[in-house]
Amino acid sequence: MKLYSAPGTCATAMHIVLEWIGKPYEVEQLDFVSMKAEPYLKINPAGVVPTLVNDDNIVMTEGGAILQYLVDSNPDANIGPQMGDKDRQELYRWLVFISGTLHPYFWPHFLPMRFTTDENGYDAVKAAPHILVDKAFTLIDNHLKGRDWLVGEDKSVADAFLYAMAQWGYGLEKPMTDYKNIHALMLRLSADPSVIKVHNAIGTKAYAPLAK
Known about the structure:
Layout: E1 2-5, H1 12-21, E2 26-29, H2 32-35, H3 38-41, E3 51-53, E4 59-61, H4 63-73, H5 88-110, H6 122-127, H7 129-143, H8 157-169, H9 180-190, H10 193-202
Parallel strand pairs: 1-2
Antiparallel strand pairs: 1-3, 3-4
């Protein structure tokens, strides 16, 4: 399989999961320019990451869908509940929530120019979604009370997905340590050998901001 990714994006979750699976894979790291260049647009016309090309040369996009595929196609990897498992619905819930709710909340923070034509209004646009991010993080944090992982008793693709996005929270004004259960999960995963290997591969640390 081949993953198209970019450092600091949600695609890091797929990279981590491929490492957990333990099968051969390839990763191509892109930047903004290469994501919008013709060679990549032929693979993913949306010009974003992640994109996964599987062993049958089928192209898949959208992080939540890719993670669900990886669970289903690797039943022995223990990366999420299989069909018929009592926790399967929870896996659906959190993949959809992280991709469809939490992820979009960050867009105005990172790209305010997409949400206003007034350059003088960028600061206000960037500040507004912090309320929504806090709401989402609080919901997740409450769910994690008394739990180590989002779904069931073991780490899953949902935790990798949260890990890739919760890292962005460490750059916001409200300390991530206020969400003590998310912060604890982040610390657990930052010490995971596969997570460390991924960070080493893309040249980032597992995560210096966690000490904040």
